[in-house]
């Protein structure tokens, strides 16, 4: 996957056509929710059952592909975040490519629910370079349920990214891709073998520990968990402690949920050594964003939280870490 080129004109024309026809951006989700729950299922392009591999590959058109995966928690009020992000896709692409953060971004969207209680606990798209990423995002089913236990099945995304992805960035250049998981709860301690068989259709005889999966993902992906101020869980010490224990400074606390696109873009730009923080904030102003303060606060914790050494040294210094923190 990953052929073609993004077009702002096509994006705007598609949005205009939907408005004139009275169609919602997330029309598939609306259609499914009108059906009996027994008929709720992922869009065919996002159905993970039988997943083999999600690929990000170079081509003559995109010779230096950079894979970026974004998984949303779509339980409860978190379902509004992909809707907000969909409206910002043109800005995200503009920051990543036209501002020169990465040469050939290829973006894949996915969604996460609760494997214990939800009808559609996992949705997985493809890496795309063109406006199919918009179609993919708008095809996500916003189930909105969740188990009510302050935990969702984020580790399903980790399983897919660790064991069902292949990228030329890694295989040809030894370069990690980017994984952003957006949610407001803790993960589960493990994925049951039965869930792997039922949800992904894979042959599994043993449960898989979540902590092991996240370590496995980090071998090939720069992993971040974005915690938006969307519910009371934003300040819950259990949620914050869970993700800090797993990912250290790569827990990004975002007090403005509308700024997810901006935060993703600047995080990538910083790790690509394409910008420093001040340059990134200026880029946000250039594209008309007012979220610079929220993004700056989210990234400020990166330089001060424990585990800073897992970030590139220049990035950590730019975000305020002291030299001794980088030892």
Largest sheet: 6 strands, mixed
Structural class: alpha/beta
Tally of separate domains: 1
Helix % is 25-40%
The whole-angstrom Rg is 19 Å
Protein name: VWA domain-containing protein
Region (Disordered): 28-64
Describe this structure in words.
The chain is α/β, with parallel strands linked by helices and 327 residues long. It has a single domain (8-253), classed as von Willebrand factor, type A domain (Rossmann fold, 3-Layer(aba) Sandwich). The chain is 38% helix and 15% strand. The protein contains 14 helices and ten strands. It has helices spanning 8-21, 27-33, 80-86, 89-98, 132-138, 155-163, 168-173, 193-200, 210-217, 237-247, 260-271, 277-286, 292-300, 313-318, and strands at 54-56, 65-73, 104-112, 122-124, 165-167, 177-182, 190-191, 208-209, 221-228, 251-254. A six-stranded mixed beta sheet has the order 4-3-2-6-9-10, sandwiched between helices. Helix 10 (237-247) links the parallel strand 9 (221-228) and strand 10. Helix 6 packs across helix 9, helix 11 packs across helix 12 and helix 11 (260-271) crosses helix 13 (292-300). The chain starts with 7 loop residues before the first helix and ends in a 9-residue tail after the last helix. Mean pLDDT is 90; it is low at 303-310 and 321-327. Residues 28-64 are annotated as: Disordered. This is VWA domain-containing protein.
List the helices and strands and how they pair.
Layout: H1 8-21, H2 27-33, E1 54-56, E2 65-73, H3 80-86, H4 89-98, E3 104-112, E4 122-124, H5 132-138, H6 155-163, E5 165-167, H7 168-173, E6 177-182, E7 190-191, H8 193-200, E8 208-209, H9 210-217, E9 221-228, H10 237-247, E10 251-254, H11 260-271, H12 277-286, H13 292-300, H14 313-318
Parallel strand pairs: 1-5, 2-3, 2-6, 6-9, 9-10
Antiparallel strand pairs: 3-4, 7-8
């Amino acid at each position: 996957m990953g052929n073609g080129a993004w077009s702002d004109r096509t994006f705007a024309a598609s949005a205009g056509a939907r408005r004139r026809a009275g169609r919602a951006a997330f029309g598939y989700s609306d259609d499914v929710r009108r059906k009996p729950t027994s008929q709720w299922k992922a869009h065919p392009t996002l159905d993970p059952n039988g997943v083999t591999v999600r690929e990000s590959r170079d081509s003559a058109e995109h010779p230096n592909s950079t894979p970026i995966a974004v998984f949303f928690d779509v339980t409860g009020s978190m379902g509004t975040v992909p809707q907000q992000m969909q409206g910002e896709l043109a800005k995200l692409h503009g920051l990543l490519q036209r501002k020169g953060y990465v040469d050939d971004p290829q973006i894949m969207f996915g969604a996460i629910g609760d494997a214990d209680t939800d009808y559609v606990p996992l949705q997985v798209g493809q890496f795309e370079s063109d406006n199919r990423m918009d179609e993919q995002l708008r095809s996500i089913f916003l189930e909105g349920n969740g188990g009510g236990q302050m935990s969702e099945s984020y580790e399903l995304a980790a399983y897919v990214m660790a064991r069902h992805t292949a990228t030329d960035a890694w295989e040809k250049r030894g370069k990690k891709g980017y994984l952003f998981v957006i949610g407001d709860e803790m993960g589960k301690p493990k994925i049951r073998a039965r869930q792997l068989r039922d949800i992904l259709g894979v042959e599994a005889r043993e449960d898989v520990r979540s902590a092991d999966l996240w370590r496995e993902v980090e071998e090939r992906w720069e992993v971040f968990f974005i915690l938006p101020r969307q519910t009371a869980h934003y300040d819950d010490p259990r949620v914050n402690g869970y993700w800090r224990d797993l990912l250290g400074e790569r827990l990004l606390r975002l007090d403005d949920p509308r700024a997810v696109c901006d935060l993703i873009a600047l995080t990538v730009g910083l790790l690509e050594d394409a910008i420093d923080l001040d340059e990134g904030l200026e880029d946000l102003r250039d594209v008309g964003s007012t979220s610079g303060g929220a993004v700056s606060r989210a990234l400020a914790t990166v330089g001060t939280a424990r585990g800073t050494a897992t970030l590139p040294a220049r990035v950590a210094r730019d975000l305020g870490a002291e030299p001794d923190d980088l030892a």
